[in-house]
Write a structure and sequence with these properties.
This protein is mainly alpha-helical and 396 residues long. It has 2 domains: 7-294, Fic-like fold (Orthogonal Bundle); 301-382, Winged helix-like DNA-binding domain superfamily/Winged helix DNA-binding domain (Arc Repressor Mutant, subunit A, Orthogonal Bundle). It is 60% helix and 6% strand. The protein has 17 helices and 5 strands. A 3-stranded antiparallel beta sheet has the order 3-5-4. A hairpin with a 6-residue loop joins β4 and β5. It starts with 6 loop residues before the first strand and ends with a helix.
Length: 396
């Protein structure tokens, strides 16, 4: 499939500060990479690429049909898994327990807050895609949510960049950068073009999502947060085209398992290798969907396991908590009391019994906001990531 490569242009450069090496301070010109417009381009793969897309669509459809309706907690589970893995690609990793504390309203680290913000941004983008076309404002709104936890990045959030940025290389100039995106004055037109492409309904779904992501990363429209918003764009397109209705395909876990390969595929896209990136995303969707189906089966078996461990009395506070754990795997005392519908004393006794049995673990001992998590669900989050990583490396 012929796809236009980026053109390289030389632009003048004026250092903004007297920092860095001598080469940084004396730099006078840079080479920027400018993507072609893609809104009206066609993409019709054949052979192995077409077969990879078909396999991906089948795998995602099976995940959705087999789990989306019958195990609602899986949708929240996969959404959180995707957002956290996407954050880890950007070296933001608080760990599941710290993330759980943040999700339940407990005192949280900056990294945990950032990961929670990634969840909120993904939810916003997917919800928008479910209701109608993707717009620049929907991306800007998601970006504001993503950047909100950090005061300094929040200042420039919710707007496309007005400065030249770059990936890799020096901290001060684009010397030796891996990628120098287009100048800021070209970003608005490129984003309009990209969104027109992303909203089309006459393209193969997997290819459309993959190419939109690669184009977004090439434009790099924000000063920060491009990776996480760009990966959320894949999920948004899958939702807009109706391939998913409830589940989120945990693609970021594949990218996290071999980030060098992921970034190499993006670089090749800029050289015109659209087929390579489409095949990469298609295979990733297949592996991650199949692993998620295994996770769905494991989650579905947990309630019986918990009942066997605890042996609760019918309609007891213990039984009511067990029935709610898949839907609410991390919660505080107020949520627990709402679930049990009984007194503080009875609720706390039930929580203590489930903790002693190993069903729950305490994430926060704070007297003002004690937080519990379901041990098996936290373990399954790690298991899913490991399973996707193994499938990725085994088929590399």
């Amino acid at each position: 499939m012929v796809w236009p490569s980026h053109r390289i242009e030389t632009r003048s450069w004026k250092p903004q500060q007297r920092q860095g090496s001598r080469d940084d301070r004396t730099l006078e010109s840079i080479e920027v990479s400018i993507p072609s417009m893609i809104a009206s381009l066609e993409y019709d793969a054949t052979g192995a690429i077409a077969r990879a897309q078909e396999s991906a669509v089948i795998a995602v459809a099976r995940l959705e049909a087999g789990c989306g309706d019958h195990l609602a907690p899986l949708s929240d589970f996969l959404l959180r898994s995707e957002s956290v893995a996407s954050s880890k690609i950007e070296h933001i990793d608080a760990g599941w327990r710290a993330f759980g504390k943040a999700a339940a309203g407990g005192k949280a680290s900056d990294e945990a807050k950032s990961q929670l913000a990634a969840v909120q941004a993904l939810i916003a983008m997917v919800d928008t895609a479910r209701k109608g076309p993707l717009t620049l404002e929907s991306l800007l709104s998601a970006h504001r949510l993503l950047m909100a936890p950090d005061y300094y990045t929040a200042i420039d959030s919710g707007e496309v960049r007005q400065v030249q940025n770059w990936i890799g290389g020096s901290d001060y100039t684009p010397i030796n950068a891996l990628h120098v995106p287009p100048p800021p004055e070209l970003v608005p037109e490129l984003m309009t073009d990209l969104l027109a492409f992303a909203n089309r309904i006459d393209l193969p779904i997997i290819a459309q999502a993959a190419l939109a992501h690669a184009q977004f990363e090439s434009i790099h429209p924000f000063t920060d947060g491009n990776g996480r918003i760009g990966r959320a764009l894949i999920s948004a397109i899958l939702r807009r085209r109706g391939l998913t209705r409830r589940v989120t395909v945990p693609l970021a876990s594949v990218m996290l398992a071999d980030t060098r390969r992921y970034f190499d595929k993006l670089t090749r896209y800029r050289d015109g290798d659209a087929d390579g990136f489409v095949e990469y995303v298609a295979v990733a969707a297949t592996h991650s969907s199949e692993a998620a189906q295994d996770t769905a089966r494991a989650l579905a078996e947990l309630p019986d396991r918990w009942h066997a461990m605890v042996k609760p009395r019918t309609n007891s506070a213990d039984a009511k908590l067990l029935e709610a754990l898949l839907d609410t795997p991390v919660f505080n005392a107020d949520a627990a009391q709402h679930i049990t519908g009984t007194t503080d004393v009875s609720t706390y006794r039930a929580l203590d019994r489930l903790t002693e049995a190993g069903v729950l673990e305490v994430l926060s001992e704070s007297k003002r906001n004690r937080i519990w998590a379901v041990t098996d669900v936290l373990a399954e989050l790690d298991a899913l990531s490991a399973a996707i990583g193994k499938r990725t490396t085994d088929h590399a």
